[in-house]
Amino acid sequence: MLTCVHERGRREIIMSKKAAVIKGDGVGPELVENMLRVAEAVGTNIEFIQCEAGAEWWQQHGGDSLIPEETWKILESTDAAFKGPTTTPGGAGSPKSVAVSIRQKFNLYANVRPVKSFPNTQIPLGDVDFVCVREGTEGFYFAKEIQLTDDVFISIRKITRSACRNVARYAFEEAARRDWKSVVAIHKSNILKQTDGTFIEEVRKTGENYPGIEMEEYHIDNIAQQLIKNPQLFNRKILLSTNLFMDILSEECSALVGSIGLIYSANIGDSYAMFEPAHGSAPKYAGQDKVNPVATVLAGAWLLDYLGEKENSKAIFEATESVIAEGKYLTYDLGGSARQSEMVDAIIKKLR
Questions:
Q1: Residue 331 and residue 271: Cα distance in Å, rounded?
Q2: Can you list the residues of the chain whose pLDDT is less than 70?
Q3: Is the pTM of this model over 0.85?
Q4: Which InterPro entries does this UniProt record tie to the protein (predicted)?
């Protein structure tokens, strides 16, 4: 909470925004701690409320969810959330992931991953600049599987017109915000005639409301090879697809910028959002002060922007890009030898 004093002595109480923070598993806690260091250095007024979730918590407490009830209450009482990398246990009967649970609870239908080359990085196929938009609440992540016999198992893919409309609208709006002229809809409706057929039908309908933005269509297998053959074809475009397809494609796209440690992401709905790095929890690197902090730091900066601190967000992005461009403090995946904390120290020094 902030108190502002005006010229004539009138006091005005301004309630600060609140964000839930899940530190996560593996390398998550150290990454999130460094993100919070950067947010503090830039002078944020957001109140961060830390809470538990993830496989490590679940292994100690059990239950049918990776998220404790106390954390759900915190999430429901805050303006947004930040989630560090979390581990999702495998095997029949284990809980769904933390991210999927939160996306479905708050209807965060748009998972958004900007894919943009940074200066002074090892770019394998040239500069790229586009945004991957993924439907985040259904598809195969609906998580309904059925055993019919000892030999036959079925996974159900859920597609609804409402979810398709929501994510399509977000994609076209994002293109308009960036003054980009194209949305690329990715599907396989020639095989998945009803589910992908419904998806592409709703995207086409939505596109009719945006006459200044072209809609392109690619089959999933074709675009997978086009992204390697000619990735610049998609620069300044929004790539849009269903949940599993874009989950896989966005991982492929991360390789185009040299490291998934540079890919920050958001999960956005109509009244809530959750921000996170795109990469996993990498437990083998836990506690080694080694993993690239950029995705986590910039996901945190995006959260500040979402909660109204646009100048603070811009400052973090500029400081981070400057550190990468200088090349003195880069982690191993970017060709350097700096520790995670050293790279974050360099970002903070730029802010100050």
A1: 36
A2: 1-15
A3: yes
A4: IsoPropMal-DH-like_dom (IPR024084)
DSSP state of 334: G
Question: What is the reported pLDDT for 13?
Answer: 52
pLDDT digits (tens, 9 = 90+) for 52-67: 999 999 999 999 999 9
d(C-alpha 104, C-alpha 270), whole Å: 13
- The secondary element (H helix, E strand) that includes residue 267 is strand 264-268
Would you tell me which CATH number, out of the four given (3.40.718.10, 3.30.160.70, 1.10.3720.10, 3.40.50.300), belongs to the domain 124-256?
3.40.718.10
- Domain ranges, ordered by start, for the chain: 15-109+264-352, 124-256
**pLDDT score, position 14:** 57
Measuring CA to CA, how many Å separate 315 from each of 44, 206, 207, 298, 319? 11, 35, 34, 11, 6
Which CATH code is given to the segment(s) 15-109+264-352? 3.40.718.10
Contacts of 240 (CB under 8 A, 6+ apart): 133, 134, 167, 168, 171, 183, 184, 185, 186, 203, 246
Please check whether the two domains, 15-109+264-352 and 124-256, share a CATH topology.
yes
Answer yes or no: are the C-beta atoms of 17 and 45 closer than 8 Å: yes
